[in-house]
Amino acid sequence: MAMASPANLHASGDDILTVCAISVLAAMLASVLHEGVGHAAIALLTGAPSGILTAVAWSSEYDSRLVAAGGTLVNLAAAGLSMALLRGAKGASVRTRYFLLLSMAFNLFDGTGYFFFSGVTDFGDWARVIEGMNPHWLWRGLLVVIGVAAYYGAVLIVGRGFVRDLGIPTGDRSRLRRLTLLPYLSAIGIVGLAGALNPISIRLVWQSALPATAGANSGLLWFHHYLPKEIVPLRAGEEISRNYRWISVAAVAALVYVVIVGHGMTLSQ
User: How many CB atoms lie within 10 A of CB 213?
Assistant: First the structure.
């Protein structure tokens, strides 16, 4: 198959405000799915009478291995759903496809990155899952190995999505950087801001929020180094033009996320 020239495959006028709005929505969705569904909902459904949900943690007197693993499992399920929707969204706008791609990326990186993080630091969700399992060093080692393999696979999947579904050639490094750096910084900004307001402990910002966003999502910054050259766009590239619907929805959702979820919500059965 002949590969079209980069000039014919994309336009370069991506609107920064719209890109950031889509990025913020995708990042908040991944965060709420992890904490709100993966931890809080599972805890309430399996015995927790109540608890406090924030942007960076779920806190209750009830805990279990399932609750600890729930955040990662929900993120991975959401990544799979986003991938399926993206594959079926052939007639969708470039903004919708970009949102689905970022949703897949944030959920996939968060889900796979947690194995490695807990294995190396013996802290976080999967450290709780393997707590008391012996030999402990072996379980930690397995988390590291699984994490490295799964995260590398996630990097390739996300990278292929940027090329095939957004129509960005592998050689167009400037546009790849623009459409990955802005989401990376947007995710750090919105989760960090909401996390700083949590009533549990400010330490959660650098113990949980920053590793989960700056660390896990770092794959966005370097996946282009590992993309096989034979991957080609499946469609012509389109610029992400300004769209006030996406911007307005993102602004309202961010306000709710920071003010309400950031400050903490008490949930009960």
Answer: 27
